[in-house]
Amino acid sequence: MNNGAHDKKCEIWAIGGGKGGTGKSFVTSSIGTHLASKGNKVVLIDADLGGANLHTLLGVSKPRNSLTDFFEKKASLNDIIVNCGMPDIGLVSGTLSSLDSENIKYAQKLKLFRQIKAIDTDYILIDLGAGSHNNTIDTFLLADKMIVVTLPEITALENMYHFIKNVFFRKLKIILSAHGLKDMIQDVWKNRDVHGIKHLKDVVEHLMGTSAHVRDIIENELASFKIYIILNQVRSGREVMIGSSVKSVCLKFLGFDAQYAGHIEYDESVLRCINKRLPFMLTHPFSHVAKEIIKLTENLKDGRQITVTADKYANRRL
Ligand SMILES: Nc1ncnc2c1ncn2[C@@H]1O[C@H](COP(=O)(O)OP(=O)(O)OP(=O)(O)O)[C@@H](O)[C@H]1O
Ligand SMILES: [Mg+2]
After folding, report:
1. Which ligand is nearest to the CA of 57?
2. What is the pLDDT of residues 280-289, one digit of tens each?
């Protein structure tokens, strides 16, 4: 607990990824179940306001209370946390009855963020919807651990890159705005041809070259900027290696080192389990998938990543 004997700080993890159907909700529910099984108190927030279904993956029917009560009836977030059948896991359902998630007012968003940060628990896991809308990105940026779930296929990787790029751009904008340099990044991007800028990495380098003051701001603020990658539904050692390619692309075009937290293999029992509304980690605790989820959760907790080398993985069968 927040104010518990060890005075452990609550950690917020957000799970996003750009493309729909990559396994964000499956990963969120599975990580949450694992953390709770280790004695942590966990609150899961379904922030996929247009297509909330986290409750299904946890094996419960749609909760009566949801974020609709928060946005429309002024209920507090604590009041709409429901128990979802497992001890130590609370759920905030994202179902919105009438509100369009993209039209949530700025003040409402800030209120939601304030109340998320005030929840008394060990871990808060936020399951985000697909897409790169500003509300989605701001919720992602709220987290202590920003986690992206992607698939080893080109469309998912493209959407993920687009998502990460937008997250990074927005983070830079927020950093500079906070120091009274609101329009700086837009101006540089608008005049990118003049400055010979092709990628976001060049923007950062250009900005840092403008003055020692700006360089210090960016260096300090970005020192803790980390995005963790989870590759889901992998079917071969070659696909596992795609996580390393994602790292290289982020480094080359965005200039930061994404962390490869782990991979999860494709397993048909995941779908069977979801269709039966059974929480996978409880029904298949000794499966490969469960072991991989445990491993990557521990990596995320410790801020560790995996190293994948061609000699170990290129011809490896899963
Ligand atoms: N490791 C896996 N092996 C096999 N199938 C999987 C695996 N992970 C996820 N799936 C399948 O992918 C489907 C989509 O998963 P999930 O609902 O978690 O995705 P999502 O990213 O949350 O989607 P959305 O963007 O629509 O919210 C699941 O119903 C399940 O059938
Ligand atoms: Mg989902």
Report:
1. 1
2. 999 999 999 9
